[in-house]
Amino acid sequence: MARNELDDLPLDRAVLAAFAELARGAGPVAELGCGSGRVAAHLRDLGLDMSGVDLSPALIELARQEYPDLRFEIGSMDALDLADGALGGIVAWYSVIHAPPQEIPSYFAEFARVLAPGGHLLLGFFEGEPLTAFDHKVVTAYRWPIDELAKLAGEAGFAEVGRMLREAREGERPFRRGHLLMTRG
Fold first, then answer.
1. Which of 65, 92, 64 minimizes the C-alpha distance to 76?
2. Strand partners, 123
3. Half-sphere exposure for 140 (CA within 13 Å, toward CB)
4. Rounded to whole angstroms, how far apart are CA atoms 151 and 97?
5. pLDDT tens digit at each of 185 positions of the chain
6. Are strands 87-93 and 115-127 parallel, antiparallel or unpaired?
7. What is the pTM of this model?
8. By C-alpha distance, which of 141, 146, 157 is closest to 179?
């Protein structure tokens, strides 16, 4: 993904800004599945105490080089090296798309474990009806019906605050983008 890709995505920036406003002052925020760190850096610029976690050592090294003022660690989203309730916010920006559907409940349970009560979760994903696998550069990915993903998050203890769907723009994969903003009860 291009470093400045968010510059051309006003709706995505708006969702990230709303999340930042809700999460500001609630404690540290982690981008899970942070890749090269561009979203973590954007949220840092919006006033959040950001860090990032990704399974790929190469992407973590790239993130550390690109954003040396941020903390990036190698790790898995479903087994975080964090204490219970350690985070005030979590962003999973197009990262849960790579989890096999049967594993999503365990990911959301881990998110709920490390997120403080009242903390916020922002999910970015490809939306589609029905749940559909597709080829992705990294590994197989999935398009999720927004209501189904919201239901699974709800079963893990999250309540929906808001959602946004947008159509693909020219040059993007021809899939609708889904965004869910949740809070932990």
1. 92
2. 92, 180
3. 7
4. 16
5. 456 778 888 999 999 999 999 999 999 999 999 999 999 999 999 999 999 999 999 999 999 999 999 999 999 999 999 999 999 999 999 999 999 999 999 999 999 999 999 999 999 999 999 999 998 887 899 999 999 999 999 999 999 999 999 999 998 889 999 999 999 98
6. parallel
7. 0.95
8. 146
